[in-house]
From TrEMBL:
UniProt-listed InterPro entries: Ig_TRAPPC10, TRAPPC10/Trs130, TRAPPC10/Trs130_C, TRAPPC10/Trs130_N
Hydrolase as UniProt keyword: no
TRAPPC10/Trs130 N-terminal domain location: 15-325
Annotated protein name in UniProt: Trafficking protein particle complex subunit 10
GO BP field: early endosome to Golgi transport; intra-Golgi vesicle-mediated transport
Keywords: Golgi apparatus, Transport
Main subcellular location: Golgi
Cellular component terms (Gene Ontology): cytosol; TRAPPII protein complex
Annotated source species: Pieris macdunnoughi
Positions of the TRAPPC10/Trs130 C-terminal domain: 977-1134
Listed Pfam families: Ig_TRAPPC10, TRAPPC10, TRAPPC10_1st
Localization annotation: Golgi apparatus
C-alpha cells in the first residue's frame, strides 16, 4: 500500500495484502509474478462503492498464491480468504484446447461454483512472433473458444489476452497495462461485494450484544477485520471510525455495568493486572496483545493499550499527531475511571505507571505539537508524583520501607524488560523509582518543561498551578527561596484574574514560607493582607491580625517602616479637594477629604497619613490686567491650563480601562469580478492592531512597587484611628510656592511601621496655587444703588493684604477726573485729589476706608455721565484706573405749544435713576434772553412738588409774551429748578437750556364742510364741499404755498385733485380760499381731513447761475409757523337717505 511501510512485518506485527490465487500454468505465472506485483501499486484506482458512499481512489498491493482446492477459507475471514481467482494459460493451439485445456478450465469453474466464488479471471498469455505477422490470422483463436464455452452475460471482460512482456517487452506494453488495470478493478469489485456481506453480518452480530452468550472480544476481532481491510486499501480515516465505534461500545458497557448487571464477557477484564508495559505507537500491529484479546486473556490495560495503539496508528498515517496527543489524555482518564468501575485488582501504582508511560510515549511521537505537549507533560508529572508518594521518594519522606522497596520491584517487573534504549520512557521511569535523587531530577525536569510549555502557548493558569506544585516540592527540599518565587507569581496571576479563593490559599502558603525564612518584613505585610482577606474565616483573620501586631512590636522595633501596597488592606472610595474661600494661594490652607474603607478586622492607629503633591509644568498665557469697579486689581494667572483638573474622583476613575472592551470596527465588503458578477463577500476590521495583537508576558510581569517621591510638600494628617469600614480623613497643608500641582501617591503609616502606599491618584486631579498680592477695591456702600450725579454718595476703599504684611506709613493717592470730587473724613472739603493713610496689618487682613463722592451735574441732556478715579499704590507698578458710571437725577423735556398767534413753553421732569428715589422740587423758573417776557401759568399757592424714579413726573408751563404782529427771531431760554432728597435739607439747582427757532405764526388754516346742493345735511356717500381758507398773519417771504389734503381713506374720499399751489399776495391780508369735493364714507362724528401746508419753491428757468434747482421743490415750515385752526373739529355726518318704494300695478 502506498503511504504505509511495505517492509516485511516483524515478529510483533503483521501485514495484510489482498490474496489472489493462480490456477493453470503455475510456471508461466511465476515468470510474470515479479513485474505484476511491482506494477499493481504504481497507480491509483477509482473504487465506486455501494449504498451511495463517496468514491475513493486507492492504491492496491497483492499477494499471489497457488490455487489449492482443498484449502478454502470461509467468507467471513476477510484477511485470509482469496479475493480473486485467476487461471493462467499460454495455449495457442485450438486442438490442444479442445482435447486438454477445456476440461481443466471446466473443472476449475466447478470448484469455484462449489465454493460460491464469482470473482475470477482467465488470462491468455501470447508470445509475439515476428515471423508469423505476414501470414493470415486464424479465423478462430483460443480466447474466442474459451469465451464461447465459458462466458455468460456480463462476464466477457473477465477473459483477457496479454502479450508476454518477458519475450516482447515493446509489443506488450499496452496489453500489460490493460491487464493491470483490469486486475485492480476486479479486486475492488470483489472487495465491494465481500465488504457488503461482511458489514451485514457484522450488524447482525452487533444487534445481539444484549444476548447473554454474546462476546465482545469475538465481536472486536470481527469488526477489526473490516478496519484491517480499510487500512490495507489506504482508507485510514474509515479504519479509525471502526476503532472509535469499538471504543465507544466498550465504554458504554463499562458505564452500564455500574448501574445494571454486567455481562459475562466483562469478567475477562476484571482479572488481575500483571502487566503495564509502555504503549509503542507504531503503525505495526502488536500481535502479542491481539492474541491475548483473541484468547480472552487480556486485562483492561492490555486491551486499552492495544486499542489506543491502533487508533494512534491510523492518526499517524493520516498525519494527525496533535489528535494522538489529545486522545491520549482522554484515554488515560477514561481507563483510570474504568479501572475503578470494574474493580480490576492490581498493585498500587500500576495504573499510574501505565498512565505515565502512555503520556511520555505519546510525547515522543508528538514533538512538533507544542500546544498538546503541555497537558501530556502535566499528566506525566502528576503520575510521577503519585508514584513518588507511594514509593517514599518525595522530599521530606523517611527512608523507604521494605514494603515500598518491594513495591518498586513489582512496578519495575510489570513494566517489562524489553527496552534496550537508555532514553526510553520505561528505562527513565525505572531509574527514577530506584533512588530519590533520580526521582527528584526527573520530576523537576518534567515540571519545569510542562510549565515552560504552558507559558509558551499562553496558558498561564496551568503554568501557575504547576508553579504551586513546584513551590511545595522545593519547600519539602528545604529551598524555600525558590518556592517563594513560584508562589509570588501564582498569587499575582490569581489576583489579576479574580481568583480570590486561590489567592487567599496562596497567601497562607507564602506567609508560612516567610516565617520559615525569618523574613519578618514580608511576614508582617502578608499577615496584614491575610487579615484583610474576606474569603477567609474571621478566626483566621483575627489570628493573623494579632500576628501582624506582634511582629510589629517584636521584630520591627529597630527597623525602618515596611512599605506595601495600600490596596492590600484599604480601598479608596473618593478623594475631594475642598474649596477655599480665598482660593488656593500661598500661605493659605489647602484641604483634601479622603474617604476609604478599611478591611482589617480591628482598629489600628495611623501614625501619619500623607498625600504627595507633585508639581507639573503648565505653560502660562499672559493676560492683560483690567480693573473695574469691584474688580480685583492684582495680577491674575490664566486658568485655561488647569481647567481639565478635577476636584473630586471616585474609585471607579482609578481603574484602568480594559482594552478588550473596546468595540471592534467591522464592515462588510463585496468584491466583484470584471463582469460585475459577485466574486466574494468579506468582513474587514479597521483597527486590528489595537485588538489583535500578540499577547506577551508584559501584563504578568512583576509590578514596580510605588515609592514615595521627593515631593516639595504633602497633605498630611497625623495620629488618628482607622476603624473597620468607612473612614473619612481630612488632609491639610500650607503651600509656600506658586505653581500647578497634582495629587500623587497616598501613604498610610500604620502603627509607625507599616507604610501602605497607593498608586498615583489621578493625573486629572490637581489645583493651581497662586500668590495673592495686595488688592484694592473701590466699592459702593450700597451696591444695588446707582451712582447719581448731583448727589453725594458713600463709598469705601477696601484694601486686602493678601499674602503680604501691610507696613506702617503706607498711603494711597486718589485722583478724580474733572467734575468729580472726593471727601475723606466728616469735616473735610470736597477735592479732586486725596492722600489716604493705610494702617499696618497682618496678612489676609481687610481694611475698609469710608469716602464721600460727588459728581457735578452739568446742564447737559445726557443719560449717562462717565468719570474716572486713578489710584496710585506703592505695591502696584502702574496706576490703577477705576471707571465710574453716573446717571442724572432727572431729565427735562420741553415743547413749544401754539394757539393762533400765542406761544407757550411746556416743561416735563422725569427721574430715570435705576433705584427708587424721591426728589422734592422747588422754585421752578424760566428765564428768556432779549426783550421777551414770560407769563408764569403755574399755580401760585402749592406745596413742594415731588417726582420719583417709579415713573412720577412734574410739568410746568409758561406763555411767551411778545407783540403778535412782530416777527420774532431765534430765542434762548434757561429752565432752572431746585431739588433735594426727602431726607436732606440742602437743595441743589437743576438747569436745562432751551433753544427756540422760528416760533412766529405765519399762516392760519381754517376748514369748513358744507352739504352738497339740494341737501340740508351731510350724509354718507353724498358729495360735500370742503372749504379751505389760508390766511397770512405775519410778514414772510414765502408767497407760493402748496396745500395737500391728507384724508383718512376709511372715512373720506377726495374727489378731484388733493393738492395745489396757491400764491399769497404780500400787499393784502385777504385769505386764499379753495373748494374741494369730498365724500364721507361712513356716518357719525368724523374729524375733518388734515391739510398740510409747505413752502413751494419754483424751478429756476431764467438764471441758471443762481443756486436754485432746475426742478420745483417743497420745504416744510418750522413747528409753530403754521396753525391749523380746525384741526380738532368734527362734523356730524348722517346715514344715507333710504330709497323710495315703487308701487307695482298688475
Amino acid at each position: 500500500m502506498k503511504g504505509v511501510d511495505s517492509s516485511t512485518a516483524n515478529e510483533d506485527g503483521m501485514q495484510n495484502k489482498p490474496i489472489i490465487t493462480c490456477a493453470g500454468d503455475w510456471n508461466l505465472f511465476c515468470t510474470l509474478e515479479a513485474p505484476l506485483v511491482a506494477a499493481i501499486p504504481q497507480d491509483s484506482c477509482e473504487w465506486r462503492r455501494s449504498f451511495g458512499r463517496i468514491t475513493k481512489f486507492v492504491y492496491l498491493e497483492a499477494s499471489f498464491i497457488k490455487y489449492n482446492k482443498d484449502k478454502v477459507q470461509p467468507e467471513l475471514n476477510l484477511l485470509k480468504r482469496p479475493i480473486l481467482h485467476i487461471y493462467w494459460t499460454d495455449c495457442v493451439d485450438i486442438e490442444y484446447y479442445k482435447t486438454t485445456l477445456r476440461e481443466d478450465i471446466e473443472i476449475w469453474f466447478k470448484q469455484l461454483e462449489k465454493n460460491n466464488v464469482s470473482d475470477w479471471m482467465i488470462v491468455l498469455v501470447e508470445t509475439y512472433d515476428i515471423r508469423k505477422t505476414n501470414k493470415l490470422l486464424p479465423r478462430t483463436t483460443v480466447l474466442d473458444k474459451v469465451k464461447g464455452d465459458f462466458a455468460i452475460k456480463q462476464t466477457e471482460d473477465r477473459f483477457i489476452s496479454v502479450i508476454n512482456p518477458i519475450k516482447s517487452e515493446a509489443r506488450s506494453a499496452e496489453s500489460w497495462r490493460a491487464l493491470v488495470a483490469k486486475l485492480r478493478h476486479l479486486v475492488l469489485v470483489s472487495y465491494n461485494k465481500a465488504l457488503n456481506k461482511f458489514e451485514e453480518y457484522m450488524r447482525e452480530q452487533r444487534e445481539k450484544r444484549n444476548d447473554p452468550e454474546w462476546d465482545y472480544c469475538k465481536y472486536f476481532i470481527l469488526q477489526e477485520q473490516l478496519a484491517f481491510v480499510l487500512e490495507m486499501l489506504g482508507l485510514y480515516e474509515e479504519a479509525l471510525v471502526q476503532y472509535d465505534e469499538l471504543d465507544a461500545l466498550f465504554s458504554q458497557f463499562v458505564l452500564n455495568s455500574n448501574v445494571t448487571e454486567s455481562p459475562k464477557w466483562l469478567d475477562t477484564f476484571k482479572q488481575q493486572i500483571t502487566s503495564w508495559q509502555a504503549i509503542r505507537l507504531t503503525t505495526t500491529v502488536p500481535m502479542h496483545l491481539r492474541e491475548l484479546i483473541i484468547k480472552q486473556k487480556a486485562s483492561l490495560l492490555d486491551f486499552r493499550s492495544y486499542l489506543f495503539q491502533r487508533q494512534s496508528a491510523m492518526l499517524l498515517l493520516t498525519e494527525k499527531p496533535e489528535e494522538v496527543a489529545s486522545r491520549c489524555i482522554s484515554t488515560v482518564h477514561n481507563t483510570l475511571v474504568e479501572l475503578s468501575l470494574l474493580g480490576a485488582p492490581s498493585i498500587d501504582g500500576a495504573s499510574a505507571c501505565w498512565a505515565h508511560l502512555a503520556c511520555v510515549e505519546t510525547l515522543r511521537v508528538c514533538e512538533a505539537c507544542t500546544d498538546m505537549q503541555a497537558p501530556l507533560l502535566h499528566n506525566a508529572k502528576d503520575k510521577l508524583h503519585e508514584l513518588g508518594k507511594l514509593c517514599g521518594l518525595l522530599p521530606g519522606s523517611p527512608e523507604p520501607t521494605s514494603e515500598q522497596l518491594h513495591l518498586v520491584v513489582m512496578l519495575s517487573a510489570g513494566m517489562g524488560d524489553t527496552e534496550t534504549n537508555n532514553n526510553s520512557p520505561t528505562v527513565r521511569l525505572k531509574e527514577a523509582l530506584c533512588s530519590s535523587t533520580s526521582f527528584q531530577q526527573y520530576y523537576l525536569e518534567l515540571a519545569e518543561l510542562a510549565m515552560g510549555t504552558y507559558k509558551h502557548i499562553g496558558r498561564l493558569r496551568f503554568a501557575r498551578q504547576i508553579g504551586r506544585d513546584l513551590a511545595a516540592f522545593y519547600s519539602e527540599l528545604g529551598e524555600t527561596s525558590k518556592a517563594v518565587v513560584f508562589l509570588v507569581d501564582a498569587l499575582r496571576s490569581y489576583e489579576e484574574q479574580g481568583w480570590h479563593e486561590l489567592a487567599a490559599q496562596t497567601r497562607l502558603e507564602l506567609v508560612a514560607a516567610a516565617k520559615k525564612m525569618n523574613d519578618f518584613d514580608r511576614y508582617t505585610t502578608l499577615s496584614a493582607k491575610i487579615a484583610s482577606t474576606a474569603e477567609l474565616e474571621i478566626l483566621v483573620r483575627n489570628f493573623f491580625f494579632e500576628e501582624m501586631m506582634k511582629s510589629i512590636k517584636q521584630n520591627l522595633t529597630d527597623k525602618d517602616s515596611v512599605q506595601t501596597d495600600l490596596s492590600d488592606c484599604f480601598r479608596l472610595i473618593t478623594s475631594t479637594l475642598l474649596p477655599s474661600e480665598r482660593g488656593y494661594i500661598t500661605e493659605n490652607k489647602v484641604q483634601c477629604k479622603l474617604v476609604f474603607e478599611s478591611v482589617l478586622p480591628k482598629d489600628v492607629v495611623c501614625t501619619k497619613a500623607t498625600i504627595c503633591i507633585d508639581p507639573c509644568e503648565v505653560e502660562k498665557t499672559p493676560v492683560k490686567n483690567k480693573t473695574d469697579l469691584g474688580i480685583q486689581a492684582s495680577p491674575k494667572k490664566s486658568s485655561d491650563d488647569v481647567s481639565s483638573f478635577s476636584s473630586s474622583i471616585r474609585l471607579d476613575d482609578l481603574k484602568p480601562k480594559n482594552p478588550l472592551l473596546d468595540p471592534m470596527q467591522f464592515t462588510s465588503k463585496l468584491h466583484f469580478k470584471e463582469d460585475k458578477s459577485l466574486q466574494k463577500a468579506t468582513i474587514e476590521c479597521h483597527n486590528p492592531k489595537m485588538i489583535l495583537k500578540r499577547s506577551d508576558s508584559t501584563k504578568y510581569r512583576k509590578p514596580v512597587p510605588q515609592v514615595k517621591s521627593n515631593c516639595e510638600f504633602y497633605l498630611t494628617c497625623t495620629d488618628f484611628i482607622i476603624k473597620p469600614g468607612l473612614n473619612e480623613v481630612l488632609f491639610e497643608c500650607i503651600p509656600t510656592k506658586c505653581g500647578v500641582f497634582k495629587l500623587g501617591v497616598i501613604s498610610l503609616l500604620v502603627e509607625g511601621k507599616i507604610d501602605f502606599i497607593s498608586d498615583v491618584l489621578s493625573s486629572k486631579m490637581g489645583f493651581e496655587v497662586i500668590t495673592q498680592g495686595v488688592s484694592v477695591y473701590l466699592n459702593k456702600v450700597e451696591p444695588k444703588k446707582d451712582l447719581v450725579a448731583g448727589l453725594e454718595h458713600d463709598m469705601e476703599l477696601v484694601v486686602t493684604n493678601g499674602c503680604s504684611r501691610m507696613d506702617e506709613n503706607t498711603t494711597i493717592h486718589l485722583k478724580a477726573s474733572s467734575g468729580l470730587h472726593l471727601r475723606y473724613g466728616v469735616n473735610s472739603l470736597l477735592s479732586r485729589e486725596l492722600t489716604i493713610p493705610v494702617e499696618a496689618s497682618e496678612p489676609f487682613h481687610t481694611t475698609k476706608i469710608p469716602l464721600r463722592l460727588f459728581a457735578v451735574l452739568l446742564p447737559k441732556r445726557e443719560k449717562s455721565i462717565e468719570h474716572t478715579v486713578w489710584l496710585t499704590c506703592p505695591w502696584l507698578e502702574s496706576i490703577m484706573e477705576v471707571p465710574l458710571h453716573f446717571s442724572p437725577p432727572m431729565i427735562a423735556a420741553w415743547r413749544l405749544l401754539t394757539s393762533n398767534t400765542r406761544k407757550f413753553v411746556h416743561v416735563t421732569l422725569k427721574s430715570t435713576v435705576g433705584h427708587l428715589i424721591h426728589l422734592v422740587l422747588t422754585e421752578p423758573k424760566l428765564d428768556c434772553d432779549g426783550n421777551i417776557t414770560v407769563s408764569n401759568l403755574n399755580p401760585k399757592a402749592h406745596d413742594d412738588m415731588k417726582i420719583s424714579s417709579d415713573g412720577t413726573t412734574a410739568s410746568f408751563m409758561w406763555e411767551l409774551l411778545k407783540d403778535p404782529l412782530v416777527k420774532a427771531g431765534p430765542m434762548k431760554a434757561t429752565f432752572t429748578i431746585q431739588y433735594r432728597l426727602e431726607d436732606e435739607k440742602v437743595s441743589r439747582t437743576f438747569t436745562c437750556p432751551i433753544d427756540i427757532q422760528d416760533c412766529t405764526t405765519l399762516f392760519v388754516i381754517r376748514t369748513k364742510l358744507e352739504p352738497g346742493k339740494g341737501s340740508d345735511f351731510c350724509r354718507a356717500s353724498q358729495v360735500c364741499c370742503l372749504h379751505l381758507s389760508v390766511q397770512r398773519v405775519n410778514e414772510t417771504e414765502y408767497t407760493s404755498l402748496m396745500y395737500e389734503v391728507l384724508a383718512d381713506q376709511t372715512m373720506w374720499a377726495v374727489l378731484g385733485r388733493t393738492a395745489g399751489v396757491i400764491s399769497m399776495d404780500s400787499s393784502t391780508g385777504e385769505p386764499q380760499n379753495v373748494t374741494l369735493d369730498v365724500m364721507p364714507l361712513m356716518a357719525g362724528y368724523l374729524p375733518l381731513p388734515t391739510v398740510r401746508l409747505s413752502k413751494y419753491i419754483a424751478a429756476n428757468t431764467k438764471d441758471p447761475k443762481k443756486d436754485i434747482s432746475a426742478h420745483p421743490r417743497l420745504e416744510p415750515f418750522g413747528p409753530g409757523q403754521v396753525y391749523h385752526a380746525g384741526k380738532t373739529k368734527q362734523v356730524h355726518v348722517l346715514a344715507p337717505a333710504p330709497k323710495e318704494h315703487l308701487d307695482i300695478v298688475v
